[in-house]
Amino acid sequence: MLIYLRVLKESFNFAISALTNNKLRTFLSLLGVTIGIFSIIAVLAAVDSLQKNIKGSLSSLDNSTIIVMRFSFGPTEIPRWKTQQFPDVTYDEYQYIKRNLPDVEAVSFALGVPQGTLKYGDITSTSVDVGAVTHEYYDIEAMELEEGRFFNEAESVSGNPLLILGSEVATNLFGEISPIGKEVRIYGRRATVIGVLKKQGQSLFGSRDGQAFVPANFARRIYGTTKNVVFPQIVIKPEDGVDNEEFIALLEQQLRSLRGIKPGDVNTFFVNQLQGFADFIDNITGQLNIIGLVISGFSLLVGGFGIANIMFVSVKERTNLIGIQKSLGAKNRFILSQFLFEAVILSVIGGLVGLLLVYIVSIIASNFTGDFDFVLSAWNISIGLAVSAVIGLISGIIPAISASKLDPVEAIRTGY
C-alpha cells in the first residue's frame, strides 16, 4: 500500500513538473478536457436548475390538481386547427362539476384576463397580472395573507368589486400605509382592497407579489366570455387518496354528457393534470441532457487525445529514467501505475479548471437572470471529477502500457 502511495506522490510531482516545464504544451493538451468538462457540467447544471426552478414555481399547487380548459399543457394528437375550434369551459360547467362530481376537495373557476393598471389617487401601478378567480382558489393554491382576508362565497357569486393585492403591488400603491378598505381603480372600475398576500419572492413563472386577484364574476361583467380575450379554466383539487385515473375518467364522462359529445367523438376539452405537466418537464429536461452530453462528448474526445498525446511525449522524454527504474528492480505494474496516475492527475486538473469555470458562470448567470437560480450541485461536481478521472485513465492506458513494456537496456541506451 505504501509503495502505491509513493507512486501516487511521484506521479503527482511528475504531473506538476509537466505543467510547469511545458506550460504551452500542457495548456493546449488540457484545454480539451477543460472545455469538455465545462460543457458537460454546464449542461447538467443548467438543465437541473431549469427543472428545479420550474418545479419550485409549481410547488404551491398540488401535483394532483387538475385544470380543465380548451388547451393542452403538453403535446396532443389532435390537430391544432381542430383544437382552436373547441369551445371554452363555462361558468355553468364549473357549477355543474361542483355540484355533481364526487371526491372533490375544491373546484374553482378562473379567467385569464389581460394585465391591468391599478390606480390609487395619483399613484399608478401598471402591467399588473390580474387573476380573476372564484373564492375556492384561495384553498387550492394554498395562498397566505399578510393582512385582511380573501373574498367569500357570497362575494364571489355576486361578483363584488373586491381586490386582493400582492405585496409588491400593495407597496407600490400604498407604501407603508395599510391598503385594507382603500378603493383602487382597476379596468376603469372602483374596487375595495380587502386583503394583501404574504411576500413570496420571484420564481420562473413570475410571482404573486406582482399580482392582484378579483372575483371571477366581477371580471365576467367587464369582459364577458369573449373568445381569445379571456381564457376560462376550471381548477379542480381531488380529495387525498382518490384514484386519479378513475377521477379523471368520471370527470370526462360528466363533461362529455353535459356537452352532448357522441360516443367515438374526441373530447372538446383537455383535462390537464399538474403531475402530467411535471412528467412532461422531466421528459424534456431528460432529452436536453442527452443532447447536451452527446455534443459535449466530442469535446471530451478531443481532450482525451490531448492527454494521450502529452503522455506519449512524457514516456519518450523519460525513457532513460524508465530504463534505470526497471534495471533497479521496478516491475511493469509499477511503471504502468506511475503513468496511469500521472494521466489521471493531469485530466483531473483539467476537470477542476472546467468545474471552476462552471462555478464562475453560475454565479454570473444567477446575478444577471435574477429570477433564475443557477445551481451547481455536489452531484454534478462529483460527476465532473469522475468523468475527468475516467478520461485520464482511458487516455493514459496505451502510453502507460508502452512504457511498462520497454526493455531496460534499450531504454537506458536511448537516453544516451
From TrEMBL:
Pfam families the record matches: FtsX, MacB_PCD
Membrane topology: Multi-pass membrane protein
Subcellular compartments: Cell membrane
Keywords attached to this entry: Cell membrane, Membrane, Transmembrane, Transmembrane helix
Superkingdom of origin: Bacteria
MacB-like periplasmic core domain span: 26-253
Stretches assigned to the ABC3 transporter permease C-terminal domain: 294-408
Signal peptide limits: none
InterPro entries: ABC3_permease_C, MacB_PCD, Macrolide_Exporter_MacB
Transmembrane segments: 27-47, 290-313, 334-361, 381-403
Family indicated by similarity: Belongs to the ABC-4 integral membrane protein family.
UniProt protein name: ABC transporter permease
